[in-house]
Amino acid sequence: MVLYHLSVMVNMTQRTAWVKDEIRNLRETGRYVPIRTLESPQGARIIIAGKEYINMCSNNYLGLANHPEVKKATIDAVEKFGVGAGAVRSIAGTNSLHIRLEEKVAAFKHMESSLVYQGGLLANLGTIPVLVGKDDIVFSEELNHASIIDGVRLSSATRIVYKHLDTEDLRAKLKNQRKDGKRALIITDGVFSMDGDIAPLDRITELGEEFDAMVYVDDAHGEGVLGKNGRGIVDHFGLAGRVDIEMGTFSKAMGTMGGFVAGSKDLMDYTKQRSRPFLFSSALNPGDTASVFKSIEIMERDDTLLKKLWDNSRLLKDSLSKIGYNIGSSKTPITPVIVGDEKKTLDLSNELFSKYSIFASPIVFPTVAKGMARIRLMPSALHSANDIGVTVDAFEKAGKVLRIIQ
Ligand SMILES: *Cc1c(COP(=O)(O)O)cnc(C)c1O
Question: What is the best residue among 59, 121, 144 to mutate for testing ligand 1's pocket, by most ligand atoms within 8 Å of CB?
């Protein structure tokens, strides 16, 4: 593969020179994360700078990002509809692929209706401010994803943060403060992306019913992973019809790009009139829209990939625990190898990369709390038992050299 490096000599202004100090500060505190460039499709093995690595950090849970049927669906859609959506959804950007996908997502999620966005982040930024405003109150889980935090900020609603997985704390806060808002919203990640644990959505739903608060779950890491055929967390807990808003992404298990919210027909209808990314940012492209439709068809018809994903996850977790690593209390394929110290985590990641050809990216502050730095491993349906074995072996050797394990 040929890489073209186009470098142009330009003398930039000096008014942004302050960033040099900021970058130095990030480097000195072990928070400057190198960004690798892939030269191959997503898969269990990937090519970086001409060399093959075992890929342990993509969200491509089911391997659909490079699935032949999904690629074919994308190519066919491009042939038929072209490459660009051409406009925002509310003007001339809605095409029949969007409508077909919205019906598919609603059916897959057992919801009345759904609305397709250009990304999961945008789905949160766009939808939360439609649901609540300055007279309202949001009860938000402590470890919610950044896009939820930002969506709540954009809404101007009062924000009450409740403790991670702690429904007693949530109940106490609802009891004391529900009355402070006209409308109330409880919002939570379904699966927590850095720890892999699962929100107690059954209990949260009951609390929503008891205190007249809408319940909104972000299922980005639950889709394709939890529930029958990967329908997600609402299906996992058997809560169909009781959760008000389910939000998700097409960029993880579904392998492509885009996001959605699902809920009542009226709510989706109203969201189309009010949501700013829907009104002010161009629609999801035809190729991506068609590829997601195909991904869901594959998930509905066959759960072989889902089973393989879970087999690999169990193997990886059992093996890492056995050699003495702290892998937290994940209940899903997300496998955090918690090292703690930022610099040590970067060293481990670098050692795995340069000596053992394992691509396992470090996760440091501010993505996780200070002192909770980790390598987050993401097994997929594409890995072989051998890939997992080679990875665990490398973790054992590198961890001993760096005195992370005994
Ligand atoms: C990845 C993720 C998102 C953002 O989804 P994109 O489609 O990548 O924008 C939102 N919420 C959670 C919990 C996520 O993990």
Answer: 121
